[in-house]
Amino acid sequence: MKRVLLNGVLAIFVAGSCSIDAERLAKDRLANPEVSTSEICYACKDQAGFDLELCNNMDDTYTLFYKGIEVKTIQAGEMEDKTARDFVAEGCKGIPDFGS
After folding, report:
1. Distance of CA 71 to CAs 52, 53, 98, Å?
2. Left, alpha or beta for 80 (phi > 0: left; psi -120 to 50: alpha)?
3. CA-CA distances (angstroms) from residue 3 to 8, 9, 12, 23?
4. C-alpha to C-alpha distances, 50 to 3, 4, 18, nearest whole angstrom
5. Mapped to the 3 state alphabet, what secondary structure does 45-85 carry?
6. Of 9, 29, 33, 50, which one is least surrounded by beta carbons within 10 A?
């Protein structure tokens, strides 16, 4: 009987620990999205799992893509003093709204 009770308590503890770790990892992922880098583009996934990509046009402008669709071209000065990588990471911390 003691063994069954001990195993039950241990299972509850392990399951609880795993869910706490999973929740913390999910929050960390949202706070610090992983940004992949190619030679001229930076990309990450937003909270909904869609791709956000910023590509350097090599003429002091960048093209922004969301869900694989070109959204707009922005000037380097429009990135709020952020690097292209940081600009994309900031966009992936939520769900971008390009309506405005």
Report:
1. 10, 10, 8
2. left
3. 8, 10, 14, 30
4. 48, 46, 27
5. ECCCCCEEEEEECCCCEEEEEECCEEEEEEEHHHCCCCCHH
6. 9
**What tokens appear for 89 in the block?**
């990471």
| Tokens read off for 82 | 């952020």
Q: Is the pTM of this model over 0.70?
A: no
Q: What distance in Å separates the CA atoms of residue 24 and residue 19, rounded to the nearest whole number?
A: 9
Q: CB within 8 A of 88, min separation 6: which ones?
A: 35, 42, 43, 44, 52, 53, 54
Give the pLDDT of the chain (100 residues) as one tens digit per residue.
656 555 555 556 555 555 566 566 555 555 667 777 778 999 999 888 899 999 999 999 999 999 999 999 999 999 989 999 999 999 888 877 776 4
Number of helices (H), then strands (E), belonging to the chain: the values are 2, 5
